[in-house]
Write a structure and sequence with these properties.
Layout lengths: L12 H9 L4 H18 L2 H10 L16 H5 L4 H9 L7 H11 L8 H13 L4 H8 L4 H9 L1
Helix pairs in contact: 1-2, 1-7, 2-6, 6-7, 6-9, 7-9
């Protein structure tokens, strides 16, 4: 994908993630956003996760390419039906900030030279602009230690 294939609208969610994290393309931004979102959802109650999804209901990237047409709320939802179902019936998980970052780096295959913290901060910054202050505060309450600080600073 070349930059001419990407909308010049700097407000698009995936472009924000790509730019802030220094990623090579929107597909990488999309994949990493999904991993950050999955990790966030694992810490949250189902009800809180549903409230976030309802506020993220808008197109993430206007394009003819099907792979990028997902709404931001679609990025928030888990694409694996079994994992999605399990996350709705189990209580929130509890893990520390190091585990959060390790999951981003390992599950997301973060590119060499970019840290999991950088990717997390980029996704957080793009996400916070899409949410009400009430949702931002609610998410804060679920995040552990340093991850909470990254969220607040994003």
């Amino acid at each position: 994908m070349t930059t001419t294939d990407i909308s010049q609208n700097n407000q698009a969610f995936l472009e924000k993630v790509q730019a802030k994290a220094g990623l090579s393309d929107l597909y990488e931004a999309r994949d990493l956003a999904e991993v950050v979102f999955r990790t966030m959802r694992d810490l949250m109650t189902t009800e809180a996760s549903d409230r976030v999804a309802s506020e993220l209901h808008q197109e993430s990237q206007p394009t003819k390419e099907k792979a990028l047409q997902n709404e931001i709320s679609e990025l928030w939802k888990d694409t694996n039906p079994i994992v999605s179902w399990l996350s709705r019936v189990r209580p929130p998980l509890s893990f520390d900030d190091q585990t959060f970052i390790r999951r981003i780096e390992q599950e997301g295959s973060v590119p060499r030279g970019i840290s999991g913290e950088t990717v997390t901060a980029a996704v957080f910054a793009a996400t916070k602009t899409e949410l009400s202050q009430e949702r931002v505060q609610e998410i804060t309450s679920f995040l552990p230690g340093k991850i909470q600080q990254i969220w607040q600073q994003a």
